[in-house]
Amino acid sequence: MDKAQAQGVPARPLLVYHDSWYERPATGPAATTLASLPSYMNMVALSFVRPDAVYWGRLDLSKTGLQYGFPGTVLRDAVALLKRRQPGTRVLLAVGGANYNNWDALDLDAIVRLVRDLGVDGVDLDFEPESPGCALRPPGRMRCLSDGAWQDLVGRFRAAFPRPLLLTVPGWSIGAYGEGAWQNAQPRGRYTGSMLNLLRSPQAAAIDLVSVMAYEAGPTFDPWQAYQAYRQVWSGPLALGVQVPPSQLGGPTYTVPLAERLARQVAQEAQADERAGMMLYPLLGRPPDPIGPDNPDGRLLAQALCRGLGLADCDQPLP
């Protein structure tokens, strides 16, 4: 991928998933957390839209999958207000996720209308096949039953959302393992190698940023190792993802020191190349009290990632 292909991705991207189910009720755009996001959160994914969303227009979000507790008109105006306040921020619609998986009924036309009516900058394609069917096959290459579906979806989404609209893709924690130096990387699971063939296919040129869902992977998982594995197969903008605790699968648990250290490693690894960054899920998430550096909410983690990446104004809090 050359720089022209990624011209819409901010330098040192910090992508945050804005969890619609945790957003506070609001009667106007200025009362939302969305419109008040600080400048260092330079990519925001509104989460989540159903692949089979029903949307005919007029900003009726009731069957789209988004769970904001206010009308679509308020969401549209909050997006516009955020972009006026932070003109360097890119706003995306996250499509899919773990709970919305009816991809056989994908309605791209509905998603195109929703992108247009909300005034966002593109989509985040979060395809999580239940059974990717991956295995190492001669001559030492991973092959997955989901490879064709991934490539087809990326091609269709790029056709529906031509540049300068953005198309970003989150990859499974272990999705770049299974070959070469990472053939025996731990942990292993059904998603081992599930992203490799997409990222070396011709369709990869349609992708503007890849993020690594480096969480819910168990106690043997090393997020830095996962980042390096992805970097070997993907040279474009790459964001290492962290998650608000607690972890459901036993790790890794992201503390403020760990998140900041990883972000600093990413920034140092790519000093001459600003295409490396971080991702946070879910921004508004809050673990059980007490909140603190060893048990952070999304606000504390976002500031830690900002500091680690060397971005400006990291003391700006999220309202």
Account of the 3D structure:
This protein is α/β, with parallel strands linked by helices and 319 residues long. It has one domain (3-309): Glycosidases (TIM Barrel, Alpha-Beta Barrel), CATH 3.20.20.80. The protein is built from 7 helices and 10 strands. The strands form 2 sheets. The chain has an 8-stranded parallel β-barrel with strand order 1-2-3-4-7-8-9-10, surrounded by 4 helices. β2 (43-49), α1 (72-85) and β3 (90-96) form a beta-alpha-beta unit. α6 (256-269) runs parallel beside α7 (298-309). It is globular and about 60 Å long.
Short description:
It is built from seven helices and ten strands.
Computed CA radius of gyration, to the nearest angstrom: 18 Å
Distance between the termini: 37 Å
The top level CATH class name: Alpha Beta
- The stretches of 5 or more residues where confidence is low (pLDDT under 50) are 1-6
CATH superfamily: Glycosidases
Largest β-sheet summary: 8 strands, parallel, barrel
Derived structural class: alpha/beta
CATH topology: TIM Barrel
- Largest sheet: spatial strand order: 1-2-3-4-7-8-9-10
The average pLDDT value, as a whole number, equals 95
Percent strand equals 15-25%
Count of alpha/pi helices: 7
How many independent structural domains? 1
Note the run of SSEs as H and E: EEHEHEEEHEHEHEHEH
Shape: globular
Reported CATH architecture: Alpha-Beta Barrel
Number of strands: 10
Summarize the amount of helix as a percent range. 25-40%
Organism: Azospirillum rugosum
Protein name: GH18 domain-containing protein
InterPro entries: GH, Glyco_hydro_18_chit_AS
